[in-house]
Design brief:
The strands form 3 sheets. Strands 1, 2, 3, 4, 5 and 6 form a 6-stranded mixed β-sheet that branches. The protein has a 6-stranded mixed β-sheet with strand order 10-12-9-7-8-11, with helices on one face. A 3-stranded antiparallel β-sheet has the order 13-14-15. α9 packs antiparallel against α10 and α13 crosses α14. It has 14 helices and 15 strands. The model has no long low-confidence stretch (mean pLDDT 93).
Length: 436
C-alpha cells in the first residue's frame, strides 16, 4: 500500500513569548499520531503540555512521551488523542471552521490545521515547510507499521482568522482595537471571546453576565466579562442580537502573549463526547486530588474549587462538566486552578419546556439538589484532602453571603433566572442549610 503522510509542527509558547518546537503531528489515512521531539523528551524542566502526559517519575514521563503504542499518542479511528480532540470546537463553531477550511466537520486533522494559530492555551500548530526534513524518529514510527510511505503530503497554512474555541455556544475569537472588538485579526491570536445568545435563548448573555456578577459577589476568582453592543464588535457575519458577552481570555497575557491552560477533560483524558465524565463523586474527587497534589497553591485552589461547587449548586449551574473546569500554567510548567468561566443558570431554561429537554442537566440537578454537607465532606475525604472542617466552614460562609447579597443583584436578572435561583435560596437545595 502506498500513499502520502501529512505533518504539522507543534509548538508551545513560553510565558516570555518564545515559540518552542516540541514535536510533530501526523496523519496517515485514519491514523493520527503525536510525536514529541528528543529535546522536549530529554528536558527535565520541559514545559507542560498536559498532565495527561505526566508520569509518576521522570522515567515514567519519558516512557509516555516516547511510547510506540499509547492512546495518548496515536489513534487509528480518524480522531486525535483526547488532548487534541478537546482543542477543537463543537456544534455551530465546528461547522463554521470546517466551512472556512473547505473540509468535512469530521476531518480532525484539517480542523486542527485550520485553527492552528489560535488554539486554547499556548499551543500552536502549522505545516512543516517543504524544505524541512522530518526527523527519522517521526517517520520511522509509521514505516514500522509496514506502511510504504512515498512522500509528505501538502498541508495548507492555518486559515488567517480561524480559531478553535471549545464549546457549543456560538462564539468568536477577537482582539480589542481601541474600543472595538475585531474578529479579523490578520493571523493574530485572539485575547477576547465574544459569545452570542441564540434564538432559543435570547437572554443567554444576560443570564451568563449575571452569573459572573453572582460569582464575583461571593469572592470567586472569575474571568473578566462585560456586555457590549453589537455595534462595538466587528463580526464576520450579521447577527440578530443587540448584546454580546465579551470575556477576556485568561490564556492570554496583557500584551497578547499565550499562557498555557488545559481543561480537566484533557487532564483526565476524556473525549469531548464524554465531557460529563463518570459521575460527580468520581470526577470531582479526581479533580480535587489533582489540585491538592499538583497545584502550586493547593490550599487556595482546593478552597476555591469547593466554593465554586457550592455556588454552582445554589445558582443552578448544572453544566459544570469537565470542559468547564481548567488548569492554567503561568510559568509554563506548574499548574494552578484557572479562573471561573461559563457561569450559566441552566435550570432557568427548564421552565416551560418538556421534561425530556435538558435531560442530562435535569439528572445532574436532581443529584446536586440532594447533595448535603456530609456528602461534600465525604467527597473531600475520598480525594484525601486535609483540613476538611476548615474548608467546609469557609464554604458555608460563602453560602451565607450568597443568601444575603444575591437577592438584590437578582432584581436585574432575567425573570426565569431570578425565579430559579430564588427557589433554591429558599431551601430548594440541601446545601442552603448551613447547619446540616
Amino acid at each position: 500500500m502506498t500513499t502520502s503522510i501529512r505533518y504539522l509542527r507543534m509548538f508551545l509558547h513560553s510565558p516570555a513569548g518564545a515559540k518552542n518546537l516540541i514535536g510533530y503531528l501526523s496523519q496517515y489515512g485514519d491514523i493520527l499520531r503525536v510525536s514529541f521531539n528528543e529535546d522536549y523528551v530529554n528536558n527535565t524542566g520541559r514545559p507542560t503540555l498536559s498532565l495527561a502526559y505526566l508520569g509518576t517519575s521522570e522515567g515514567a514521563t519519558r516512557e509516555i512521551l516516547t511510547a510506540p503504542r499509547d492512546i495518548r499518542l496515536s489513534r487509528s479511528d480518524g480522531k486525535w488523542p483526547a488532548y487534541f480532540q478537546n482543542l477543537l470546537p463543537e456544534g455551530h463553531n465546528r461547522e463554521r471552521l470546517a466551512a472556512q477550511r473547505g473540509c468535512s466537520a469530521d476531518d480532525e486533522f484539517e480542523l486542527l490545521a485550520a485553527a492552528g494559530h489560535d488554539l486554547m492555551g499556548a499551543i500552536e500548530v502549522e505545516p512543516v515547510p517543504p524544505d524541512m526534513e522530518i526527523p527519522d524518529a517521526v517517520r520511522h514510527w509509521h514505516t514500522a507499521l509496514g506502511l510504504d510511505i512515498l512522500e509528505p503530503g501538502f498541508v495548507e497554512f492555518p486559515v488567517e482568522d480561524a480559531s478553535a474555541l471549545p464549546g457549543v455556544i456560538t462564539k468568536f475569537s477577537a482582539v480589542l482595537e481601541g474600543r472595538r472588538y475585531v474578529v479579523k485579526r490578520h493571523g493574530a491570536a485572539g485575547s477576547y471571546i465574544l459569545k452570542l445568545p441564540s434564538t432559543r435563548h435570547p437572554d443567554l448573555v444576560a443570564n451568563e453576565f449575571m452569573g459572573f456578577q453572582l460569582c464575583n459577589a461571593v469572592g470567586l476568582d472569575c474571568a473578566k466579562a462585560s456586555v457590549i453592543s453589537r455595534v462595538d464588535a466587528d463580526l464576520p457575519e450579521v447577527v440578530p442580537f443587540e448584546e454580546i458577552l465579551a470575556v477576556k481570555r485568561f490564556d492570554r497575557g496583557p500584551a497578547g502573549q499565550r499562557i498555557h491552560m488545559e481543561e480537566f477533560a484533557q487532564v483526565l483524558r476524556y473525549d469531548p463526547k464524554h465531557k460529563y465524565g463518570k459521575g460527580l463523586h468520581k470526577d470531582y474527587s479526581d479533580m480535587l486530588r489533582i489540585i491538592d497534589q499538583l497545584s502550586v497553591r493547593p490550599v487556595q485552589d482546593v478552597q476555591e474549587f469547593v466554593n465554586r461547587f457550592v455556588v454552582f449548586v445554589l445558582m443552578g449551574n448544572t453544566d459544570t462538566h469537565l470542559k468547564n473546569w481548567a488548569l492554567r500554567y503561568p510559568d509554563g510548567v506548574h499548574s494552578e486552578l484557572a479562573p471561573l468561566y461559563d457561569p450559566v443558570c441552566i435550570t432557568a431554561f427548564f421552565e416551560g419546556v418538556p421534561e425530556h429537554d435538558y435531560a442530562v442537566n435535569r439528572a445532574i440537578d436532581k443529584t446536586v439538589r440532594a447533595f448535603t454537607w456530609n456528602d461534600l465532606d465525604a467527597l473531600l475525604e475520598k480525594a484525601k484532602v486535609m483540613r476538611r472542617g476548615r474548608i467546609l466552614q469557609v464554604a458555608k460562609g460563602v453560602v451565607a453571603k450568597a443568601k444575603a447579597d444575591w437577592p438584590a443583584l437578582l432584581e436585574r436578572a432575567p425573570e426565569s433566572m431570578r425565579r430559579a435561583i430564588a427557589e433554591r435560596l429558599a431551601g430548594g437545595v440541601a446545601l442552603v442549610d448551613c447547619n446540616s
